[in-house]
Amino acid sequence: AQSVSQHNHHVILSEAASLELGCNYSYGGTVNLFWYVQYPGQHLQLLLKYFSGDPLVKGIKGFEAEFIKSKFSFNLRKPSVQWSDTAEYFCAVNGNQGGKLIFGQGTELSVKP
Amino acid sequence: EAGVTQFPSHSVIEKGQTVTLRCDPISGHDNLYWYRRVMGKEIKFLLHFVKESKQDESGMPNNRFLAERTGGTYSTLKVQPAELEDSGVYFCASTQGLVTNEQFFGPGTRLTVL
Q1: Neighbours of A48 (CB within 10 A)
Q2: Torsion angles phi and psi, residue A47, rounded to 5
Q3: Which positions in chain B touch A101 (Cβ < 8 Å)?
Q4: B26 and B104 Cβ atoms separated by less than 8 Å
């Protein structure tokens, strides 16, 4: 079955701490991978995406993610979080033909000033 | 460029009533998706339109849900009759192509069925 699992439901960090949010997927075939973010009161927006090539992808606002095919993982990282990174983060996957996204459960990140 | 818009932003109805949600995709985007997030759960796919045709409706929960996209522009999602378990946030997303294009999401409609 196709699924995405995010390891942490709620993460609380202090400003300047490093962030790593785990994401593992189960999907037959070649995948496209995404991280979306939803800031309070705003709509979902794309942080970064992986389709092919360099498995280390850089996104907006200093975020990056690494695709490790052997581990079926696509973890999100940021070396130093800010209060403004407080949001809910969603990992998602679809097949190499595009189409519907399969989402993880979401991880709420709270950054204390 | 205007983003994906959804109407209404909130809807509170009683069990057994009918509700219609609307989504206006980004102009020129042929692909339109509906998703739903029930509280505490993951965002789940409902269906996918390519222009006015239903490409994939495998996520529609039952026949109380009817989606249309007449003319290939905006889409509506009708729930009739609504049940308590239909409560959640309904998201719409659009994209121009399929393979490498990101899906742009609307703000969602929060539906509460009492």
Answers
A1: 20
A2: -90, -50
A3: 33, 35, 43, 45, 93, 103
A4: yes
pLDDT in tens, B7-38: 999 999 999 999 999 999 999 999 999 999 99
What's the distance, Cα to Cα, between the start and end of chain B in Å? 37
Model confidence pLDDT, tens digit, residues A41-74: 999 999 999 998 999 999 999 999 999 999 999 9
Residue labelled with tokens 């701490």:
A17
- DSSP code string of A35-74: EEEE-TTS--EEEEEE-SS-SEEE-GGG-EEEEEGGGTEE
Q: What is the mean pLDDT of chain B?
A: 94
Selecting from A42, A51, A103 the residue whose C-beta is nearest the C-beta of B43 gives A103
